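Whiteboard transcription, Tuesday session. T.W. wrote the C-alpha cells on the left side:
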C-alpha cells in the first residue's frame, strides 16, 4: 500500500515519519530526495544554474539554499519555475524507491513524505493520504524558531503552500501534532494499525 504523508512547513512531518518508521513502515522522504537531486555535479543543480545563474552556487560547488530560498519565496513565478525544473527529477526517484520497497516487502505499507503532495496533484499515486496538522499560530512559532526567521519571512513561506486547513478534506487520516510527542506517537500507532489491516499485513 502506498501512503502519502503531507502537511506544511514546520508542521512536524519528519517527526511523524520517524514514528511510522519505528512502527515498521518503509519510508521515503521527498525532502531528502530534493536535496540529493541538487548535489554538486547533478542535473538538478545544472538546471538551477542555467535558470537562475551561478550566483546561487557556493565556492565549494554546493547549492546556496538560503540564498535561493530568499529569491523564490519572494517571487511566485520564480518558485513555480524552480518547481518545474526539479519536481520531475524528484518524482522519478520517488517512484523508483516506491517500486523497490514494494518488491522487497509487498505487504508493508510505504509512506512517502511529500510536502506539496496536494498542491502538485499527486494524490493519484497513493491509496491513502495522511496529513500532519498543527494550527497556524503553532506552525508560525515553530518556523520562526527553527529557521531564525522574522514573522514576515515565516508568513511568506507558509503562504507559499496551501493551508493545512485547506488540506484536511483530502486526508484519510489526520495526525494532530500540536501537543506533545507522546500524543503524536499514539495517533501514529493507531493509524499504522489501520494501514496494516488495510494492506493485508494484519488479519
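and on the right, the sequence the group agreed on:
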Amino acid at each position: 500500500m502506498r501512503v502519502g504523508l503531507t502537511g506544511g512547513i514546520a508542521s512536524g512531518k519528519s517527526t511523524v515519519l520517524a514514528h511510522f518508521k519505528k512502527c515498521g513502515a518503509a519510508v521515503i522522504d521527498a525532502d531528502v530526495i530534493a536535496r540529493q537531486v541538487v548535489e554538486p555535479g547533478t542535473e538538478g543543480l545544472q538546471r538551477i544554474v542555467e535558470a537562475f545563474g551561478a550566483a546561487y552556487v557556493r565556492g565549494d560547488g554546493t547549492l546556496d539554499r538560503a540564498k535561493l530560498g530568499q529569491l523564490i519565496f519572494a517571487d511566485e513565478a520564480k518558485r513555480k519555475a524552480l518547481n518545474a525544473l526539479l519536481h520531475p527529477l524528484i518524482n522519478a526517484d520517488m517512484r523508483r524507491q516506491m517500486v523497490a520497497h514494494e518488491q522487497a516487502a509487498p505487504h508493508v505499507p510505504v509512506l512517502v513524505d511529500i510536502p506539496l503532495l496536494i498542491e502538485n496533484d499527486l494524490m493519484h499515486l497513493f491509496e491513502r493520504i495522511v496529513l500532519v496538522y498543527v494550527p497556524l499560530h503553532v506552525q508560525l512559532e515553530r518556523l520562526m524558531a527553527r529557521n531564525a526567521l522574522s514573522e514576515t519571512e515565516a508568513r511568506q513561506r507558509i503562504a507559499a503552500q496551501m493551508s493545512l486547513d485547506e488540506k484536511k478534506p483530502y486526508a484519510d487520516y489526520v495526525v494532530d501534532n500540536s501537543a506533545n510527542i507522546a500524543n503524536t506517537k499514539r495517533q501514529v500507532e493507531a493509524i499504522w494499525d489501520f494501514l496494516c489491516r488495510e494492506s493485508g499485513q494484519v488479519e
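Someone added at the bottom: The CA atoms of residues 143 and 149 lie 7 Å apart.
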